[in-house]
Amino acid sequence: MKLKRIASIKLKSALLILSTENTSAKEVENTFDSSINEWLKSKDDFLFLKLNTGMIFFIKEGLTNEKYRVLGHKIRTLIERTEKNVFVHGNNSETIFSLVEGFCLSSYQFLKYKKEKKNLQYSLDTIHLSDVLTEEKVTFLNHTLNAVYWTRDMVNEPVSYLNATNFSNEIVSLFSKIKDTKVNVLEKSKIEALKMGGLLSVNKGSQDPPTFTIIEYKPKKVKNKKPIVLVGKGVTYDTGGLSLKPTAGSMDSMKCDMAGAAMMVGAIYLCAKLLLPVHLICLIPATDNRPGENAYTPGDIIHIMDGTSVEVLNTDAEGRLILADALAYSKKYTPDLVINAATLTGAAVMAIGTKAACMMSNAENKTNQMLVEAGNKVHERVVELPFWDEYLEDMKSSIADFKNIGGKYAGMISAGKFLEHFAPKPFVHIDIAGPSFLESEENYKGKGGTGFGVRIITEFIHNYLA
């Protein structure tokens, strides 16, 4: 699917038009005169007409960007699977962008394992866009879709394919032709040499080795003297280890436990494709968490690479252990800012559901507000939670420096405080357990992996540099 600019139809009213035919200005006027006047007086946001030559949708101006994204999804569901072209006209570039963004995100399909995928996939080849939308905006949207699609693909892949090694291979392939980037995959022997006890302990129950992937994007001219480091949890499948999860409604979707990693990879990829003048580092610790082999056990004492000892009381609190190693490793870069993303706790889902992510931060209020505003703009919202030092008390152990689980309440915050101990300041932690994977379809976000996080991180970095 490609996006292509075409000459605009000058519209008499504040409307957008999306059609499955290359509608002429005269046809629009004729249709307008016969069908539109009453609708414009109504409360309905859009009007769908099926003509002999195709479909045409009239959409009112003056709605929110998110409303246009959702309408884009609604229109996608009404257009035939076999349709190859759609045409979009309007007077406002921002509303056109949002409508097409929602339409295109709704066009994502994960059909790799479907026998009849040729009969199921959309035939859409080209979206023809009003030239009110600049070439720069069209390019931006194309790159965004590629980044979100890749992220969704990774989250939707089962561990039968996407173990740590194959995940790293996918990352290497993604960046193989991206300018000013390099990828370094650390294998198990190097991870052992670095004494990454969190990652190695979680991996002890697996037959597949862990990986630690480092992505760097550094164009010739950058605005930040010190890099921004992005860290993502890459648990390719989480059984809970010896603290085994129940299957129904708990373990069966745990292929998504690397959504934080996929999100951060997608974000650095998008920043590189957009040629943003920023130095970025992305760190991805990856393994599955299983109860086999010589699996780590509740009661074990393990050591993170910075020497911190951790008492393991629940092997299902594994993400924070592999992230602790990555955050400790990030100190070598003396970063300007560290942002961590993870499907870390059920407590985050219990607190705010699937509509937003939980954010905790010791960064300046300006940075935190920029993240909130970026999330509101792209509708990947984050809710800032308190990050008081008292929450760390729940993570202290009587026989080690820390334990890997806290108390009964506010588990997403105590887990965040645990991670903060290993990270250089300023540090932002985003718990994406709610919005990263959906059990049922939710408009343009789809079902399964949503690709949450790619757009907010990119929007934030763009504004952070301004």
Strands, helices and their partners?
Blueprint: E1 2-6, E2 15-19, H1 25-41, E3 46-51, E4 54-60, H2 65-78, E5 85-90, H3 93-105, H4 117-120, E6 126-130, H5 135-156, H6 164-174, E7 181-186, H7 188-193, H8 197-203, E8 211-217, E9 228-232, E10 234-238, H9 247-251, H10 259-273, E11 280-289, E12 301-303, E13 309-311, H11 319-330, E14 337-342, H12 346-352, E15 357-361, H13 365-378, E16 382-384, E17 402-403, H14 411-422, E18 427-431, E19 437-442, E20 446-449, H15 454-464
Parallel strand pairs: 1-6, 5-6, 9-11, 9-14, 10-11, 13-17, 14-18, 15-16
Antiparallel strand pairs: 2-4, 2-5, 3-4, 7-8, 8-11, 12-13, 15-18, 19-20
Helix pairs in contact: 2-3, 3-5, 5-10, 8-11, 10-15, 11-14, 13-15
Give a description of the structure.
The structure is a single chain. The protein is an alpha/beta fold and 466 residues long. It folds into 2 domains: 2-133, Leucine Aminopeptidase, subunit E, domain 1; 143-464, 3-Layer(aba) Sandwich (Aminopeptidase), CATH 3.40.630. Helices cover 36% and strands 22% of the residues. It has 15 helices and 20 strands. It has helices spanning 25-41, 65-78, 93-105, 117-120, 135-156, 164-174, 188-193, 197-203, 247-251, 259-273, 319-330, 346-352, 365-378, 411-422, 454-464; strands spanning 2-6, 15-19, 46-51, 54-60, 85-90, 126-130, 181-186, 211-217, 228-232, 234-238, 280-289, 301-303, 309-311, 337-342, 357-361, 382-384, 402-403, 427-431, 437-442, 446-449. The strands form 4 sheets. Strands 7, 8, 9, 10, 11, 14, 15, 16 and 18 form a 9-stranded mixed β-sheet that branches. A 6-stranded mixed β-sheet has the order 1-6-5-2-4-3, sandwiched between helices. Strands 12-13-17 form a 3-stranded mixed β-sheet. 49% of the residues are buried. The mean pLDDT is 94.
